[in-house]
Protein backbone atom coordinates (compact mmCIF):
# COMPACT_ATOMS: atom_id res chain seq x y z
CA UNK A 1 0.00 0.00 0.00
CA UNK A 2 1.29 3.42 -0.92
CA UNK A 3 2.29 5.64 2.00
CA UNK A 4 0.33 8.88 2.14
CA UNK A 5 1.99 12.21 2.78
CA UNK A 6 0.44 13.47 6.03
CA UNK A 7 0.46 17.13 4.96
CA UNK A 8 -1.13 16.35 1.58
CA UNK A 9 -3.80 14.18 3.16
CA UNK A 10 -4.57 16.76 5.86
CA UNK A 11 -4.91 19.55 3.30
CA UNK A 12 -7.20 17.42 1.16
CA UNK A 13 -9.42 16.52 4.12
CA UNK A 14 -9.68 20.18 5.07
CA UNK A 15 -10.60 21.13 1.51
CA UNK A 16 -13.16 18.31 1.33
CA UNK A 17 -14.84 19.44 4.55
CA UNK A 18 -14.89 23.07 3.43
CA UNK A 19 -16.08 22.60 -0.17
CA UNK A 20 -18.27 19.49 -0.13
CA UNK A 21 -21.57 21.26 0.56
CA UNK A 22 -20.97 23.78 -2.25
CA UNK A 23 -20.01 21.06 -4.73
CA UNK A 24 -23.05 18.97 -3.77
CA UNK A 25 -25.37 21.97 -4.27
CA UNK A 26 -23.65 22.67 -7.61
CA UNK A 27 -24.42 19.10 -8.73
CA UNK A 28 -27.99 19.18 -7.38
CA UNK A 29 -28.83 22.23 -9.48
CA UNK A 30 -27.43 20.73 -12.68
CA UNK A 31 -28.12 17.01 -12.55
CA UNK A 32 -30.63 14.57 -11.15
CA UNK A 33 -30.82 15.18 -7.38
CA UNK A 34 -30.45 11.45 -6.64
CA UNK A 35 -27.12 11.42 -8.52
CA UNK A 36 -25.65 14.51 -6.87
CA UNK A 37 -23.72 12.67 -4.17
CA UNK A 38 -22.16 10.35 -6.75
CA UNK A 39 -21.12 13.35 -8.86
CA UNK A 40 -19.59 15.06 -5.82
CA UNK A 41 -17.71 11.87 -4.89
CA UNK A 42 -16.39 11.48 -8.44
CA UNK A 43 -15.32 15.13 -8.51
CA UNK A 44 -13.37 14.82 -5.26
CA UNK A 45 -11.71 11.64 -6.49
CA UNK A 46 -10.41 13.68 -9.44
CA UNK A 47 -9.42 16.46 -7.03
CA UNK A 48 -7.37 13.99 -4.97
CA UNK A 49 -5.62 12.65 -8.05
CA UNK A 50 -4.83 16.17 -9.26
CA UNK A 51 -4.34 17.74 -5.86
CA UNK A 52 -0.83 18.94 -6.65
CA UNK A 53 -2.37 21.08 -9.43
CA UNK A 54 -4.91 22.74 -7.13
CA UNK A 55 -4.73 26.53 -6.74
CA UNK A 56 -3.54 27.67 -3.34
CA UNK A 57 -6.07 30.48 -2.85
CA UNK A 58 -9.33 29.24 -1.29
CA UNK A 59 -11.55 31.26 -3.66
CA UNK A 60 -9.66 29.95 -6.69
CA UNK A 61 -9.67 26.31 -5.61
CA UNK A 62 -13.45 26.44 -5.20
CA UNK A 63 -13.87 27.45 -8.85
CA UNK A 64 -11.35 24.76 -9.85
CA UNK A 65 -13.46 22.07 -8.16
CA UNK A 66 -16.65 23.40 -9.77
CA UNK A 67 -14.96 23.00 -13.15
CA UNK A 68 -14.13 19.38 -12.33
CA UNK A 69 -17.69 18.68 -11.14
CA UNK A 70 -19.07 20.27 -14.31
CA UNK A 71 -16.95 17.98 -16.47
CA UNK A 72 -18.19 14.96 -14.50
CA UNK A 73 -21.79 16.03 -15.14
CA UNK A 74 -21.19 16.68 -18.84
CA UNK A 75 -19.48 13.32 -19.29
CA UNK A 76 -22.42 11.56 -17.65
CA UNK A 77 -24.98 13.37 -19.81
CA UNK A 78 -23.22 12.93 -23.14
CA UNK A 79 -24.40 9.33 -23.32
CA UNK A 80 -27.74 10.63 -24.64
CA UNK A 81 -26.17 13.16 -26.98
CA UNK A 82 -23.31 15.65 -26.79
CA UNK A 83 -23.97 18.62 -24.57
CA UNK A 84 -21.76 21.62 -23.99
CA UNK A 85 -23.85 23.39 -21.33
CA UNK A 86 -25.80 22.31 -18.28
CA UNK A 87 -29.35 23.45 -17.56
CA UNK A 88 -29.63 24.84 -14.04
CA UNK A 89 -32.69 24.35 -11.86
CA UNK A 90 -33.70 26.96 -9.33
CA UNK A 91 -36.06 26.76 -6.38
CA UNK A 92 -39.59 27.69 -7.40
CA UNK A 93 -42.79 28.72 -5.68
CA UNK A 94 -46.17 27.26 -6.56
CA UNK A 95 -48.87 29.91 -7.02
CA UNK A 96 -52.02 29.44 -4.96
CA UNK A 97 -55.08 29.32 -7.27
CA UNK A 98 -57.32 32.26 -6.53
CA UNK A 99 -54.97 33.42 -3.79
CA UNK A 100 -53.33 36.79 -3.37
CA UNK A 101 -49.57 37.21 -3.48
CA UNK A 102 -47.44 40.03 -2.20
CA UNK A 103 -45.10 41.88 -4.55
CA UNK A 104 -42.05 39.82 -3.56
CA UNK A 105 -43.83 36.53 -4.26
CA UNK A 106 -45.08 37.77 -7.63
CA UNK A 107 -41.55 38.89 -8.53
CA UNK A 108 -40.14 35.47 -7.62
CA UNK A 109 -42.83 33.69 -9.64
CA UNK A 110 -42.08 35.89 -12.64
CA UNK A 111 -38.34 35.32 -12.29
CA UNK A 112 -38.77 31.53 -12.04
CA UNK A 113 -40.95 31.53 -15.18
CA UNK A 114 -38.44 33.70 -17.06
CA UNK A 115 -35.56 31.49 -15.94
CA UNK A 116 -37.15 28.45 -17.59
CA UNK A 117 -37.18 30.29 -20.93
CA UNK A 118 -33.41 30.79 -20.90
CA UNK A 119 -31.15 28.42 -22.80
CA UNK A 120 -28.97 26.04 -20.74
CA UNK A 121 -25.92 28.11 -21.67
CA UNK A 122 -27.61 31.30 -20.40
CA UNK A 123 -28.73 29.61 -17.18
CA UNK A 124 -25.24 28.29 -16.55
CA UNK A 125 -23.62 31.66 -17.21
CA UNK A 126 -25.93 33.48 -14.80
CA UNK A 127 -25.84 30.81 -12.12
CA UNK A 128 -22.06 30.88 -11.77
CA UNK A 129 -22.25 34.58 -10.97
CA UNK A 130 -25.41 34.66 -8.85
CA UNK A 131 -25.76 31.21 -7.25
CA UNK A 132 -22.15 30.04 -7.04
CA UNK A 133 -21.04 33.63 -6.33
CA UNK A 134 -17.97 33.51 -8.57
CA UNK A 135 -16.08 36.42 -10.06
CA UNK A 136 -15.81 36.68 -13.84
CA UNK A 137 -12.32 35.16 -13.84
CA UNK A 138 -13.43 32.26 -11.64
CA UNK A 139 -16.58 31.58 -13.67
CA UNK A 140 -14.51 31.66 -16.85
CA UNK A 141 -12.26 29.01 -15.37
CA UNK A 142 -15.24 26.75 -14.69
CA UNK A 143 -16.41 27.07 -18.30
CA UNK A 144 -12.94 26.86 -19.79
CA UNK A 145 -13.14 30.24 -21.54
CA UNK A 146 -11.47 33.63 -21.17
CA UNK A 147 -12.62 36.23 -18.67
CA UNK A 148 -13.60 38.55 -21.52
CA UNK A 149 -15.58 35.76 -23.14
CA UNK A 150 -17.46 35.13 -19.92
CA UNK A 151 -18.30 38.80 -19.45
CA UNK A 152 -19.79 38.92 -22.95
CA UNK A 153 -21.85 35.79 -22.24
CA UNK A 154 -23.03 37.28 -18.95
CA UNK A 155 -24.09 40.53 -20.59
CA UNK A 156 -26.09 38.62 -23.20
CA UNK A 157 -27.64 36.27 -20.64
CA UNK A 158 -28.79 39.21 -18.51
CA UNK A 159 -30.23 40.88 -21.57
CA UNK A 160 -32.14 37.71 -22.40
CA UNK A 161 -33.47 37.40 -18.85
CA UNK A 162 -34.64 41.02 -18.89
CA UNK A 163 -36.42 40.36 -22.18
CA UNK A 164 -38.25 37.35 -20.71
CA UNK A 165 -39.17 39.30 -17.59
CA UNK A 166 -40.59 42.14 -19.68
CA UNK A 167 -41.61 40.88 -23.16
CA UNK A 168 -42.55 44.37 -24.39
CA UNK A 169 -40.43 45.84 -27.21
CA UNK A 170 -37.33 47.60 -25.94
CA UNK A 171 -38.65 51.05 -26.94
CA UNK A 172 -41.77 50.47 -24.82
CA UNK A 173 -39.93 49.39 -21.67
CA UNK A 174 -39.36 51.96 -18.91
CA UNK A 175 -35.88 53.43 -18.89
CA UNK A 176 -35.30 52.16 -15.37
CA UNK A 177 -36.36 48.60 -16.23
CA UNK A 178 -32.98 47.27 -15.25
CA UNK A 179 -33.37 48.44 -11.67
CA UNK A 180 -36.96 47.20 -11.52
CA UNK A 181 -36.15 43.58 -12.30
CA UNK A 182 -35.07 41.20 -9.52
CA UNK A 183 -32.15 38.82 -9.45
CA UNK A 184 -29.21 38.82 -11.84
CA UNK A 185 -30.80 41.33 -14.21
CA UNK A 186 -30.31 44.14 -11.69
CA UNK A 187 -26.79 45.08 -12.74
CA UNK A 188 -25.41 46.98 -15.69
CA UNK A 189 -23.89 44.80 -18.46
CA UNK A 190 -20.30 45.65 -17.53
CA UNK A 191 -20.82 44.78 -13.87
CA UNK A 192 -20.43 41.08 -13.20
CA UNK A 193 -21.74 41.13 -9.64
CA UNK A 194 -25.33 41.40 -8.34
CA UNK A 195 -26.56 44.91 -7.62
CA UNK A 196 -26.80 44.27 -3.88
CA UNK A 197 -23.30 42.83 -3.75
CA UNK A 198 -20.94 43.37 -0.87
CA UNK A 199 -18.06 45.86 -1.11
CA UNK A 200 -15.49 45.41 -3.87
CA UNK A 201 -12.92 43.84 -1.55
CA UNK A 202 -15.31 40.93 -1.01
CA UNK A 203 -15.26 38.76 -4.12
CA UNK A 204 -18.38 36.76 -3.25
CA UNK A 205 -21.91 38.05 -3.67
CA UNK A 206 -24.72 37.75 -1.09
CA UNK A 207 -27.16 34.87 -1.15
CA UNK A 208 -29.86 35.06 -3.81
CA UNK A 209 -33.51 34.33 -2.89
CA UNK A 210 -33.65 31.55 -5.51
CA UNK A 211 -30.16 30.28 -4.86
CA UNK A 212 -30.76 26.85 -3.36
CA UNK A 213 -32.35 23.94 -5.18
CA UNK A 214 -32.32 20.91 -2.93
CA UNK A 215 -30.50 20.82 0.39
CA UNK A 216 -26.80 20.18 0.62
CA UNK A 217 -25.98 17.71 3.33
CA UNK A 218 -22.92 17.63 5.53
CA UNK A 219 -19.96 15.98 3.87
CA UNK A 220 -19.72 12.24 3.87
CA UNK A 221 -16.57 10.84 5.50
CA UNK A 222 -13.64 10.81 3.12
CA UNK A 223 -13.47 7.37 1.54
CA UNK A 224 -10.19 5.66 2.36
CA UNK A 225 -10.17 4.20 -1.16
CA UNK A 226 -10.22 7.78 -2.47
CA UNK A 227 -7.29 8.71 -0.29
CA UNK A 228 -5.29 5.72 -1.49
CA UNK A 229 -6.03 6.35 -5.18
CA UNK A 230 -3.09 7.16 -7.40
CA UNK A 231 -2.66 10.97 -7.53
UniProtKB/TrEMBL annotation:
Occurrences of domain RNA polymerase sigma factor 70 region 4 type (ranges): 111-161
Swiss-Prot/TrEMBL keywords: DNA-binding, Sigma factor, Transcription, Transcription regulation
Database matches in PANTHER family: RNA POLYMERASE ECF-TYPE SIGMA FACTO (PTHR43133), RNA POLYMERASE SIGMA FACTOR HI_1459-RELATED (PTHR43133:SF8)
Annotated region (Disordered), positions in chain: 164-231
Sequence ranges assigned to domain RNA polymerase sigma-70 region in this UniProt record: 16-82
Pfam family, one: Sigma70_r4_2
Protein name, UniProt field: RNA polymerase sigma factor
Gene3D superfamilies in the record: 1.10.1740.10, Winged helix-like DNA-binding domain superfamily/Winged helix DNA-binding domain
InterPro entries according to UniProt: RNA_pol_sigma-70-like, RNA_pol_sigma-70_dom, RNA_pol_sigma70_r2, RNA_pol_sigma70_r4_t2, RNA_pol_sigma_r2, RNA_pol_sigma_r3/r4-like, WH-like_DNA-bd_sf
Amino acid sequence: MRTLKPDREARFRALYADAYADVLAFAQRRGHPSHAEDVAAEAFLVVWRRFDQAPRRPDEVRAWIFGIARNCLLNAQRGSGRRDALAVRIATLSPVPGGEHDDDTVALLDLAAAWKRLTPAEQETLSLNVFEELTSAQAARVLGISGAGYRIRLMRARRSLRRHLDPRPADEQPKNAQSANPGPANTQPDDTRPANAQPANDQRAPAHPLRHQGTATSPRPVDDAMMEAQP
